[in-house]
Model the fold of this input.
Amino acid sequence: MLAGQLLSGRLFPLKISDSCGKALDLMNEFDIAFLPVVDGDKHLGYASASDLLDADPDDNILTKTNSAVVSKVYENQHLFDIITIFSEISSSVVSVVDINDRFLGILSAKELINKMASLNAFSQPGSIITLELPAISYSMSEISRIVEYNNTKILSLYVNTVEDAPAQLQVHIKLNTTDIKSVVATFERYGYTIVASYYREYDTEDMKNRFDSLMKYLDI
Done:
């Protein structure tokens, strides 16, 4: 999934004709702290709710537009890139532009997580195994062989470095079964360290409640 396919259908940028009061009202309405400011299809920067609190409501939004904040993603960037960008910025929204830096729309972290929840790999019942291993030893093909040897399928796989140990990786594997005893045993037989495993048959309402709780925790 690419950024251009994930544009928000409810969030729109501020225009240079908008007032600070209108901008703050929109942020309060949608419970967000930032909105991009555009002049036609030119991305000028962002306005923040904290800056608008002490502004004259009748002032033009340009008086509170921070042009130094240039966080953006390109329309052809993948979902995984977008997740990384959101983890690095202190905003629940980010602008999407084309290859010529023309503004296309807004990505919302909350809408993105809801979209991810609807993906087959996230919504299907199954289990998650987290491995830890030296980066030099990582082999996706070997991990796949171990899983498939036990008549199990990988629905998704995510890799990250271990905090304070950049030479170590954690590999999070979503599997299509809740019976993972044989998979775990095979990984251990091959010398893998399993740091966590989770399994449960989630129903739709339970999944929704979990994401709602996550949204409240993130306060977005």
About this structure: DSSP finds eight helices and ten strands in the chain. The first strand starts at residue 14 and ends at 15.
